[in-house]
Amino acid sequence: MFRRWWFVRLLRDNGPGAGAARRRATKHDRALLLREWEVIRDRLAVFAAQRVTAAGEVFRAAELTLPAEESAARADYLWALEAFEAAGRLLEDPADLPELAAAAVLAERAVERLAAVHAEHAGRRPDPPVVRCFYNPLHAAAAQPPARSKVKASRRPRTGAREAAADRRPSCRDCRRAILAGEVPDVLPALLPAGATGRRSPAALVPYYVVPQQWSVWAVTGCGAYDDGVPALVLRGEHRRRRP
Ligand SMILES: [Zn+2]
Fold first, then answer.
1. What is the 224 CA–ligand 1 centroid distance (Å)?
2. Residue 148 Cα, ligand 1 centroid: separation in angstroms?
3. Between these two residues, 99 and 146, which has the higher pLDDT value?
4. The pLDDT value given to residue 195
């Protein structure tokens, strides 16, 4: 979805003594970058709204009444409903791209959990949870990591730095291929405001996961992909308290 955004670009400050030409270029760069951010935001807003709407249709068609003795399924059902509600809440006034991505992620996770609840209720084994790509949780599901634990350490093939980097986080096939090729994967960007990391620090468009974790719940949780506590956090309105 973000093929055009494949590298980190900085919005430079106009430092003291900078020439007029440099100031013009900087202003031009800033305008270009902000326009690009707006284009991505608008596309992502449409996509996220579609995911939330689709989830709403699934919930309406698959309503459940669970008996008290199915306590695990009831807890999962409650979580799915909260995740769906949180996804809708995030669409109301999104602050940045990761919030929109989180709306789509939570809507999809809500539908997945609902399907698991139906399976549990019917006495079937639910599908394993989808593991999302860390670099962009809107990508295809992460490829299964190699089952190395079954291979004796002495027989393991030696892996280089790139293989180690590729194995460090769950990644979809394309992102893994990019990392193995020494390229930057097609990451989800976030806008880091000017002054966020110091009085003179420039605004920057950065991978969402490098935003300091004390400011971004999305950097910590993979846009809600890896943490079941996110829906409750959003519904309490605490997902923005960490912003600078
Ligand atoms: Zn990916």
1. 15
2. 22
3. 99
4. 73
